[in-house]
């Protein structure tokens, strides 16, 4: 099971139910099911507010995403491919420590700092 669909509490419940069923015991019927939650959630959301959100996202994605034209050493193939490669690089301990300090100072994670740097790099190369 992928970690995005469960957490520690959910996994404990799942394993407990699984072990109970595996031992041959009956599981108690559920008081509430996901469909009950979905009905409750739909009832609590304002229709007009949701329509405004839906209209925003539909308009945000009306245009096709632009192609990022990075300078390359070969021509772009006629049929796009999602195949890629890996680039291995090492940074010095001083640079790593500096990045961690930036993350701490800005209240962000190291991933966020590196992602921001990557976005700046893409902007500089593509304009």
How much of the sequence lies in strands comes to: under 5%
Measured on Cα atoms, how large is the radius of gyration? Answer: 24 Å
What is the mean pLDDT? Answer: 88
Derived from helix and strand composition plus strand pairing, the structural class reads mainly alpha
Label the overall shape. extended
Total number of helices: 5
- Let me know the number of strands: 0
Helicity, as a percent range: 55-70%
One letter per element, helices H and strands E, the order comes to HHHHH
How is the biggest beta sheet arranged?
none
List segments where confidence is low: pLDDT < 50 over at least 5 consecutive residues: none
Number of domains: 2
The CA-CA distance between the termini, in Å, is: 41 Å
Q: How is this structure best described in words?
A:
With 127 residues, this protein is mainly alpha-helical. The protein folds into two domains: 3-60, no CATH class; 93-126. The chain is built from five helices and no strands. Helix 4 (93-106) packs across helix 5. It starts with 7 loop residues before the first helix and ends with a helix.
